[in-house]
Amino acid sequence: xxxxxxxxxxxxxxxxxxxxxxxxxxxxxxxxxxxxxxxxxxxxxxxxxxxxxxxxxxxxxxxxxxxxxxxxxxxxxxxxxxxxxxxxxxxxxxxxxxxxxxxxxxxxxxxxxxxxxxxxxxxxxxxxxxxxxxxxxxxxxxxxxxxxxxxxxxxxxxxxxxxxxxxxxxxxxxxxxxxxxxxxxxxxxxxxxxxxxxxxxxxxxxxxxxxxxxxxxxxxxxxxxxxxxxxxxxxxxx
Length: 238
Prior knowledge:
By secondary structure, the chain is α+β, with helices and mostly antiparallel strands. It has helices spanning 18-22, 25-40, 72-76, 186-191, 193-196; strands at 81-87, 92-99, 115-118, 130-134, 156-163, 170-185, 204-213, 218-228, 235-237. The chain crosses the membrane at residues 17-38.
């Protein structure tokens, strides 16, 4: 069974609150999403664990939907680990780091200019599953995804990834086009978690950050769903 998406984040009120906030509101929301996804599949929802930040995994597992038994030609084009997210419409070129949720708590990188890819979910370019990339946002500016809600349908998003090391390293670029931009209040996001972050849909990219700063906290989340460019198959480099 594909892994259930973890809980989702809340924006940072200010830069100096990054570390403290990373273990707080974001973790709580991510727990709700995990429970919603598992419940929708008829599985037993776990008791939410206390939010304990975990270091990123250096060896993310191959996600469901990536067939490792195909011929050598296909294997050379398999999705790799994402390194950078480029969004021309937002003038964003941000590094991506793998993050995991061993205790059902997904904590993005503390630096709001660095994004986190859920390494137990789909990889960008996979045939199946939502490749989830999340990031903090800062209401005073400085977060890579601060203006995520301004994207429009048809805007392009590029994900640069790699497989292997040294002489065996192969780089690829996956191109997506924005299909949908939605802003959800926390409760609504939890109710739609199984649908929005499904690992059983055709391959797609999902970007997530927070929205609606009320002076003390963020009330909503921005969810951008982007679909792979038809017949793209990724651009190989190296």
